[in-house]
Automatic annotation (TrEMBL):
Rho-GAP domain residues: 850-1028
InterPro entries in alphabetical order: Endo/exonu/phosph_ase_sf, Ig-like_fold, IP5, IPPc, OCRL-1_2_ASH, Rho_GTPase_activation_prot, RhoGAP_dom
Protein name (record): DNase I-like protein
Native species: Trametes coccinea (strain BRFM310)
Keywords: Cytoplasmic vesicle, Endosome
Gene3D superfamilies registered for this protein in UniProt: Endonuclease/exonuclease/phosphatase, Immunoglobulins, Rho GTPase activation protein
Amino acid sequence: MSQKIRSAMDVVLDLIHPTEEAKVAIEVRSPFKADNETETWSGSGDDPALHRRKILAVVTHLHADGKHEHGCVFVLSERLKRVKTGPEEFLLDYAFPIVGSFAISMSQPRRTIMTSKTAIGEATTVAYTLLPTEIFPELTVTINPGGDSPFAPITLQTNDLQGLRKVLDECKRLRDASSAENEDDYDFEPFGWVAPYIADDAIPPLLSPIPPDLRTIKKPIHTRLSPARAGAPGNDFSDMELIREDWMRRKVEEELFAQSEKTILRVRIGTFNVNGKMPSQDLSAWVREQTERSASASVFIPPLKEISPLTMEEAQQHPVEKELEALDFNRMTAGPDAATTDASSTTTASDAARSATMSAGPTSEETAVSESPVDVPEDESDPDMLVLGFQELDLSAEALLYSSTTVREDAWCMAAFAGLGEKAALYEKLVSKQLVGMLLVIIVKKRLRTCFSEIKTSSVGTGIMGMLGNKGATAIRLLFTPTPPGTKAPEYESKPTVLTFVNAHLAAFDEMFERRNADFHDLSKRLQFDSGIVADEAVAPGSGYGAATVQLSVFESDTLFWLVNLNYRILLQDADIRALLAAPAQVNDENIKTLRKFDQLAFTMRNKKAFEDFTEQPLSHPPTYRFAVGVLTDGLGYDLKRKPAWTDRILHMTSSAVSVKQTSYTSHPMITMSDHKPVSAGFDVEVPVLSMHEYQNFIERLWRDVSGLEYVEERPRVRVSPTTIDFASVFYKRPATKVLQIENVGNVPCSFRFVSKAPAADPCPRWLRMSATTGLVLPGEKAEISLTAYVDDALASRLNTSFTRLDETLVLHTALGRDHFVAVAGDYKRTCFATSISWLVRLPGPVRELRFPSDILPEDRGVNAPREIMRLVNWLMSNATDVGGLFFERGDEELVQQIRESLDTGAEFAVDRHGRDPKVALAFADALIQFLDSLVEPVIPAALHARCAEMSSRDEAFEILDELPVVNVNVWISLTAFLHFIGQQDAYRDHLERLVALFTPILFRDDLSSLAPVSVVGKRNFLRYFVG
């Protein structure tokens, strides 16, 4: 079906901004040229030439004062495309300001026109001369931009006589108006409005082939804007660029990606420190998460002897290498371009800082299908892509200094394919990259081979002397272009997604914690890929140097995966770690959770020292290092010389353009050939399926509306409503939401941001959360910002003991415009949660009845223990001792809120009307846990934690209670007596250890900011003296 040709006026209207007006637009063409000079795109074979449309238009702009009108002549040319898959797209060739020196003229040439017609199978050439009376005269238009213009005069031709007359009339009117003006008549640049159309960088950032840096877009946009406050705006121009790009990105996600079809790429990632070993076990559990193999798929991998590290000659003559060479492994597992991909595999230390770019040629679909036996079923659970990272592949001295053999890479690749069993026929090796002991291999399904392109590799060494490759990283970057579902036109081009994988090995040993952080930042800076795009500052031709190209960071990706031997350890003492791992299975989950809190990587990420904004699924498997065979091991097989640790990790970071769902994360203890256990993770990478043409058109439509923000002459005008927001009562951990509406009542787009009232202050108070701190509104449209009042533990602890009136003024700054002020207020209702025990006992009554902070009682008139804790414990003792799952199952949050309200007001528990409903008991237990966890200081003060952990008998434990404040002792005795009683019940007789593990970090709050935490086992022992 042929596509509708838009009129010249429609084309121009689609191009210009709402602040401009198209007076007239006509079709034109370039003057007659020889065949080899015509502006066409010649076809091949019998395809006809594609003619390039041109449009000439007069566009005007009326200044905001309504007095000054200026115009330009625009000349547009159609963007040439071999296959027209959508509406025509036009580029602006010229923009000639109509000023006093501007000239435009029309003439009617007299020349011979060659035409042809067919008569009885013959081609006849007819020559004739145009006469003024012809119906469609050919007219020549000459435009002279004037002496001050950098452009030379141009000549165009048209048959539109009436349209051309309108062009001449408009040009004369505008030129006369311009000549009558003086520079003193206005204080603005009269043709500043033209700048967005002709700017060299007027290309939407979202159309860049290079994705934005993930580290940047993960930061909240308000943290990237210039410093500003009320009455003192920052750099509005730079802020507008960032706000505009963020607004466009959200529009694309909400209106394009969200509505498009999706495809899921199933990625299985594995990391394995092989400790210099050759494969000698079945890897199926690691590569396909399958422990049992069918008889037809059973593969025996004979143990392979070590390559001698003594001489290179020995290594070169090793029988394993000969066997692998005879098998020609790379041709077995790779496609037709295997030689290209394998060329990127290197083991030399000299390659440590060199980036290699590969052009992976496509494999035809027929080839891929023919190589896959038809009797091999493809299951939905099969991964589409296998990404395997190996560390310590080769520990020999020769490998560190020089190595050209790929025998170890080939052996491990062969073992991986053997682990796939009969499914191996569905896969081929796509690419690999090796640096000494680090190897990164990507294996994909053959039928998807053509979906991967622009494969690039890189490697960096950070080992000995900070350079050699015994430590460092290898990386692979590639484009995944999904195949559109259903039948699409052959010319359909899908939008690709950039995937990057990094296999790293960081510094070892417990004390090298800071060095590991430094290694991460070093790798983040030095790991780069050659884009092949010539940089703007590239050297001039003939200088003797090659042109510089743009280098791509590993973070310039849509999704980034790190599969690493990070070597981060656990901060607890060795004895604590082993005791927690050897504890009964019933407390395994709690112990793993405890160990996870003290993991060095978790500490690093919490404190933003490294791997900031990365995501890791919570660990549920035991530590994967260090295992040994022999007498110097504990009962779990861990080496007694090294603390067990989660050294082998898989993390990821992704942009909002891609959805990544992690489906698994585990270790594989049945593979015992190394001192590490291999780790694997499954991911479903969901990417939108849409054509590049559709994507580009959507971006360009957005861009046309907002590209001229920096050049508008009219001030943006918005209406903000309401200007006063009252949240009324604000309760602890109960969000209350109001909506602020921003309406653009002006004629130009408006970008806005919230700024602070004073220097160094936050634009938003602690108790208020905004759905967006910046935004952009088009003329006639509205934006809604959700404002949510929310009081968390930290804020409640301050408000409970101070004045409770919440008052704030928000400042909404419009770029190049004025500030708007919104008053927000609320009354906080005090709670007994998030307070201290010593303060609660001095309350004269329920906390909600406290009018002023000074109304609390003197210390010597306080009660013996907080009423609220006693009410909870007494209710549980009276009503819940026979309820199973107490403290182990979460209570209904609505019921917990009702219980909290009764505690705060002193009213009777309203939930008692539910009778003996077990979910009420669970809610009371949960309320007690939440109450204790919210206390400003735990029941056992932090200063006594170390001494409590050292107690070795029940008598010693009771003696140390004398050093606690009396109210703390009373709370401790009440709680432990209740736990002791619960532990004696039949339902909890086998769960006492779980109760101890659950309550210890609540009563002894863990200090997660310390690099030398107090013994967890010691604190549990102290609690056990009272409840066990």
